[in-house]
Write a structure and sequence with these properties.
Order of helices and strands: EHEHEHEHHHHEEEEHHEHHHEE
Number of helices: 12
Distance between the termini: 9 Å
Largest sheet: 9 strands, mixed
Structural class: alpha/beta
Helix content: 25-40%
Strand order of the largest sheet: 3-2-4-7-1-8-11-10-9
CATH class of one domain: Alpha Beta
Shape: globular
CATH superfamily of one domain: Thiolase/Chalcone synthase
Radius of gyration: 19 Å
CATH architecture of one domain: 3-Layer(aba) Sandwich
CATH topology of one domain: Peroxisomal Thiolase, Chain A, domain 1
C-alpha cells in the first residue's frame, strides 16, 4: 500500500508538569510545528481528527477542549478516544475513502493533572475486579510475571531495557528522563509492584503530538519527502484478563501480521530497520518484540544483551528513549509514529539509526495490551 503518506509531524517537549500549558496550548504548539514541518498552512488541511480521553482530561467530550487549537474551524472534525495510533488509523481511513486529501491528527495528555491509579482502576470490570483496587501497574506486574515465567526472561534483562532507553533519551531533546543508569541502579530502585521497580515503569508525563497524513496526489505540496504508509492494522483481545494468556500478546501478533502482509514484509526481523514500541514497562518492549515477530520467541532478552536493539545495532528499538523516558498516555503511540518518521528522514540526530528505509510503530489501548495498532512506514514509495 502506498496510497497515503505522512508529510508533517510536530510534538511538544515531554515534561513532568507543563504547569503553564493547558490542553489547547499543547495542541496549538504541536499543530503549528507539524504545519511548519510539512510546509503547509491550516488552509491546506481538509479535515481534523483529535485523540483524547475523558477520564485523563477530567471532563466529558474532552475533544472539545482542543478543536479550535487543532484548526478545526469550518472543517469536518471527528474524535477518537484512546491511543494516538488509533486516531491516525481513523485519519488514514478518511484519506483512503477518497473524501479528503489531507488529514491532521492530534493527540494530547496531561498526566500531571490526573491520578492514574484511579483512572486505570475504572477500566476494570465493575463487579469483580474494580473493588479490589486493581490498576494498570498491578495488572501489568501480573503480566510481567507471566511473561518472565514463560520466556525465562530475568530481572536483569528487564533492567537492561531501562538502561538502554533512558540512555537513548540523552540524544532526544524532547525526552523527559534522559539518564545514564546501570542495571544495578534499576534493580535497586523502589519496588512498585513485584517484579516492577520504579525504573521499570514509565513516568507521569504531559505532552502532545500532531501529524499530517496526505493522499498520494497531495504529497507533492509538502516541503519534505513523504514517509509512505505501507501497512496499518489493529486487533483487540478479550476484555477480562482471565480470558487471555497474559504471557502472550495474541492481538499484537494478529495486528502485526496484517500490517506486515499489507506491506509485503515476509521476514520482519530482517526487513524492518527501526522500531518504536509502546514500552510503558520494561518487560513490554521484549514481549512486544517477540509477539510482532521482530525476533524469535523467548529470545528478546538475549538479543538485548547482545546489543541487537541498540541505536547502532541491527534493529534499533526505541532509539528516541521510548515511553520509559516520557509517557504522555494518549499521545504516546502517535509520538512513536513521529519518531519513526524522523528516523526514516534521517532527522534523529544522535539517536539516528544507520540508513533505515523501513520502520514500525506500535500503539496500545486497554489493560495489559488488550488492543494494538501497528504501522509499517517506509521512506520509499
Amino acid at each position: 500500500m502506498d496510497s497515503a503518506a505522512i508529510v508533517g509531524v510536530g510534538m511538544t517537549a515531554i515534561e513532568k508538569n507543563k504547569i503553564r500549558d493547558g490542553f489547547a496550548d499543547m495542541v496549538w504548539e504541536a499543530v503549528n510545528l507539524a504545519l511548519d514541518d510539512a510546509g503547509m498552512t491550516i488552509d491546506d488541511i481538509d479535515n481534523v481528527v483529535t485523540t483524547s480521553n475523558d477520564f485523563w482530561d477530567g471532563r466529558t467530550i474532552s475533544c472539545m477542549a482542543v478543536s479550535d487549537a487543532s484548526g478545526a474551524r469550518e472543517k469536518n472534525v471527528s474524535c477518537v478516544e484512546g491511543d494516538g495510533t488509533f486516531g491516525a488509523f481513523y485519519g488514514l481511513t478518511r484519506i483512503l475513502s477518497g473524501s479528503y486529501g489531507t488529514t491532521l491528527v492530534t493527540a494530547h495528555s496531561k498526566g500531571s493533572e490526573s491520578v492514574s491509579s484511579l483512572i486505570t482502576n475504572a477500566a476494570f470490570d465493575p463487579i469483580y475486579q474494580r473493588a479490589i483496587g486493581m490498576d494498570m501497574v498491578s495488572a501489568c506486574a501480573m503480566q510481567a510475571n507471566a511473561y518472565m515465567h514463560r520466556s525465562r526472561t530475568t530481572p536483569e534483562q528487564l533492567a537492561r531495557v531501562s538502561v538502554k532507553n533512558h540512555g537513548n533519551a540523552r540524544h532526544n531533546p524532547k525526552a523527559q528522563l534522559p539518564m545514564a543508569i546501570t542495571v544495578e541502579e534499576v534493580l535497586a530502585s523502589e519496588m512498585i509492584c513485584d517484579p516492577l521497580h520504579k525504573l521499570d515503569c514509565s513516568p507521569v508525563s504531559d505532552g502532545c503530538c500532531a501529524m499530517i497524513i496526505a493522499a498520494k496526489d497531495r504529497v507533492g505540496t509538502a516541503a519534505k519527502p513523504p514517509v509512505w504508509i505501507k501497512g496499518a492494522a489493529f486487533c483487540a483481545d478479550a476484555f477480562h484478563l482471565g480470558d487471555r494468556d497474559l504471557s502472550r500478546a495474541a492481538a499484537l501478533t494478529r495486528a502485526a501480521k496484517k500490517a506486515f502482509d499489507m506491506a509485503g514484509i515476509t521476514d520482519p526481523a530482517t526487513q524492518v530497520h527501526v522500531a518504536e514500541l509502546y514500552d510503558a514497562f520494561t518487560y513490554q518492549e521484549l514481549m512486544w518484540l517477540e509477539a510482532m515477530g521482530l525476533c524469535a520467541d523467548n529470545q528478546a532478552g538475549h538479543l538485548l544483551e547482545a546489543g541487537v536493539f541498540d541505536i547502532d545495532g541491527t534493529l534499533p528499538v526505541n532509539a528516541s528513549g521510548g515511553l520509559l523516558s516520557g509517557h504522555p498516555v494518549i499521545a504516546a503511540g502517535l509520538i512513536r509514529m513521529a519518531e519513526v518518521v524522523r528516523q526514516l528522514r534521517g532527522e534523529a540526530g544522535g539517536a539516528q539509526a544507520k540508513d533505515p528505509t523501513v520502520g514500525v510503530a506500535q500503539g496500545v489501548n486497554g489493560l495489559c495490551g488488550q488492543s494494538h495498532c501497528v504501522w509499517v512506514l517506509s521512506a520509499e514509495s
